[in-house]
Amino acid sequence: MKKKQKNKISKFTSRSEFASSFQTACRIKKLRDLLKTKKIVRLLEAHDGLTGIIVEKTEITKGNKKIKFDGIWESSLTDSISKGKPDISVVDVTSRVQTIHEILEVTTKPMVVDADNGGLIEHFGFTVKTMERIGVSAIVIEDKVSEKRNSLFKSNVLQEQDNIEHFCKKIKFGKSRQTTKDFMIIARIESLILKQGIGDALKRTSAYIKAGSDGILIHSKEKTPDEILTFCREYKKISKTIPLVVVPTTYNEITESELNRAGVSMVIYANQLLRSAYPAMKQTAEMILRNERSLETDKTCIPISKLLRLIPFFEAV
Q1: Distance CA 269, CA 45 (A)
Q2: Which residues on adjacent β-strands are paired with residue 71?
């Protein structure tokens, strides 16, 4: 009797593990499928389970077409700030993985993770394995090696770019450690941020693609999209198949349609949910202090009944 029960448990566990593994593989593959079928893939940042659900469920109707986000961006900036810590790699990998788990658990869309510069080459191999195993579709690594500072932040700390040979070695090592063909490593080029010019950015682009990068993210902190559009024109001469990714935070006057016409395959809205949440929460806190009660906050707060309905609750039968 015990033997039969043990066999049943074993079969159930195997089936459960297989189903979980299959779902993870399907989720990883979603990003590549979207890049093949959509003109432009649209990602929005999430830094916890609730913001993950917002990215998952938010949609609007434009004409007779439904518009929604295609995937989730898990950013080191918003992950750090939401924990009350600076964006200087002070949040360790274990904490980042916990946040990623929380988001993946309540969503189905593909996720792209900001992995800063990927760390030491030897450590990067483990990061790739971990992210792939838990269901992340892609990681982005930047070619900076100096003390971590956000690219959009004015700092006195000298920001140094990795040399091309070393960064290519990191890309190759990461690619050699993944187990599925669908997981992606995207190289983020900081040449424009560090004022090294478009020529340097293009030189690095060619080298990183040759090293096996599955995508190129070109970053800029200019207030207009001019240098990004110039880069896009030159990028077409290097590759017509490797996806080009942009993060239009400072040059946000440009539309997705314009970016797509320029050759961009993926656009990332990297921090808007967190940035919009902070002033709203601060305003609510100030209202309570000012009025010595919470009545005035009712007009800006979601009712408790609606809040509870945001998260489905399935009772045990």
Answers
A1: 6
A2: 43
> What tokens were used for 45?
């940042």
Give the pairing type, strands 41-45 and 266-269.
parallel
d(CA 173, CA 99): 25
Instruction: Give the chain's domains with CATH numbers.
Output: 2-270 (3.20.20.60), 280-310 (no CATH)
User: pLDDT tens across 99-130, in order?
Assistant: 999 999 999 999 999 999 999 999 999 999 99
Task: Quote the CA–CA distance of 195 and 151 in Å, as a whole number.
Answer: 12
State the burial class of residue 108 (Cβ atoms within 10 Å of its Cβ: 0-12, 13-18, 19+).
exposed
HSE-up (13 A, CA, CB side) for residue 208: 32
Distance CA(69)–CA(39), nearest Å, equals: 13
* Pair 200, 229: CB distance under 8 Å: no
* Strand partners for 62: 65
A 10 A CB-CB count for 49 gives: 17
Look up the pTM and report it.
0.92
- Where are the alpha helices (H) located in the chain, listed in sequence order? 2-37, 49-57, 76-82, 93-105, 121-134, 164-177, 197-211, 226-238, 256-261, 272-291, 304-310
Q: So which residues are the catalytic ones?
A: 87
What digits encode the pLDDT tens for the residues 281-314? 999 999 999 999 999 999 999 999 998 888 876 5
Distance CA(85)–CA(96), nearest Å, equals 13
Q: Which of 193, 96, 205 is nearest to 144 (CA)?
A: 193
